[in-house]
Specification:
Order of helices and strands: HHHHHHHHEHEEEEHEEHHEHEHEHH
CATH class of the largest domain: Alpha Beta
CATH topology of the largest domain: Rossmann fold
Strand content: 5-15%
Number of helices: 16
Shape: globular
Strand order of the largest sheet: 7-6-5-8-9-10
Number of strands: 10
Largest sheet: 6 strands, mixed
Structural class: alpha/beta
Length: 398
């Protein structure tokens, strides 16, 4: 290791260990920071090395602020953090600032929200506290939530639409003529030999039509999302809401969106806008899963064409035995049942392991799913493929 590499390593350790380690590093012949690293050090010290003369507060030397509204020092600190560190690290620092420095009470300040990096965990906190949002901040909060929604939507929408379209197979053809169902592309390609130069057009001898019988009201797939809105499910609620809205926008399937704790809220009518849908959830409270599953059963018209997602940590506060019976009956009737312990991009989910084991023992897939794997899961479920195999493949790939 040459001298420059050794010096860089010492600087990194100096940033990690904080200002109190400066003298020790100087005795080792290193520890001097560049101007940019000095700014990093100040920004980090405001969170991780707080003293009476540092951190957030009017007397603080960090890039922070006290509890007063719209203190420009916090906005400046957030700006520094975003310019000095990469995006993923910014999210970690923001989260630590909220929990370590009491900044939760300040996240509803419009000036702060404009400077916060969109983050799913932070959005979960905001939704948990949404009833406390002051009037002056409501629009800023919605804009912040919309940024996150748009990011996730870009990540998932195309793949989910492709998965559903590929599964339902609207390319199947029918001998029944219908102008609305005319397959122009196939009709033209199959009749190219019948081009009439004198007319400057093709005169088809045979027309091809799509088979629409598979997407009539009686034969459409129904996808039901039964979403646990207890406090531990914040990240799953956000991803589930966005996925629900994508599915609801597709006319080839019917989508129902149900939220529950000890009460049940049918949010299907809010599916036009994922932000409105998210604000329809009320995070926190107890859990009565059995009651919500019973409510969802009324939407099962054709069990063989129904996909039921239970998105929950399975911490049942209602009748556990009745819940297990109900889920088993649903599966035996022909419904494709999937239990997602979490629909989240990071972190190990907390869930009732005993309930998860009982449900998995019925042959019902029961696992935490990364949102980016959901399109594959959807496609396999709609095609009637073995989801237990998917669960094993997913577990191996983690």
């Amino acid at each position: 290791m040459d001298n420059s590499q050794a010096q860089e390593k010492l600087q990194r350790w100096r940033l990690i260990l904080g200002q109190e380690s400066q003298k020790r590093f100087e005795n080792m012949g290193g520890g001097g920071l560049t101007p940019e690293q000095d700014l990093m050090d100040l920004a980090l010290a405001a969170i991780y090395n707080r003293t009476e003369s540092g951190g957030f507060g009017p007397q603080g030397s960090g890039r922070g602020a006290g509890n007063g509204p719209s203190n420009p020092q916090i906005t400046r600190w957030l700006g520094d953090v975003r310019s000095l560190f990469d995006k993923e690290l910014v999210k970690v620092i923001q989260g630590d600032a909220m929990t370590r420095c009491g900044l939760k009470q300040l996240i509803f300040e419009p000036e702060l929200l404009e400077n916060l990096e969109p983050d799913v965990n932070l959005a979960s906190t905001i939704l948990l506290l949404k009833d406390q949002i002051p009037k002056r901040s409501k629009e800023s909060v919605r804009l912040f939530i919309r940024k996150i929604v748009e990011e996730i939507n870009k990540l998932l929408e195309q793949d989910i639409r492709r998965a559903v379209t590929a599964s339902i197979n609207k390319r199947k053809h029918s001998p029944i003529p219908s102008a609305a169902a005319l397959d122009f592309k196939r009709t033209i390609s199959r009749n190219l030999s019948h081009y009439r130069p004198e007319l400057g057009t093709i005169v088809p001898e045979h027309f091809y039509f799509f088979d629409r019988t598979s997407t009539t009201a009686a034969n459409k797939w129904t996808v039901i999302l039964d979403i646990d809105q207890s406090g531990s499910m914040g990240e799953s609620v956000i991803y589930s809401s966005i996925v629900s809205c994508i599915l609801a926008s597709m006319s080839s399937i019917k989508t129902r969106i149900v939220a529950f704790d000890t009460n049940i809220v049918d949010l299907t009518e809010k599916s036009d806008d994922p932000v409105d849908l998210l604000f329809g959830f009320q995070l926190g409270g107890g859990t009565d899963i059995n009651q919500s599953v019973a409510y969802c059963q009324q939407f099962i018209e054709n069990p063989a064409k129904t996909l039921f997602f239970l998105i929950s940590d399975l911490e049942e506060g209602g009748n556990r035995a009745a819940l297990l019976r109900r889920i088993e009956e649903m599966k035996e009737s022909g419904v494709t049942v999937v239990c997602l312990l979490a629909l989240a991009g990071s972190g190990k989910p907390y869930y009732d392991a005993q309930m998860a084991q009982r449900i998995a023992g019925m042959g019902i897939p029961c696992f935490a799913c990364n949102p980016q794997m959901l399109p594959v899961l959807l496609e396999r479920a709609l095609k009637g493929m073995d989801l237990a195999q998917f669960e094993k493949e997913f577990a191996k790939g983690k």
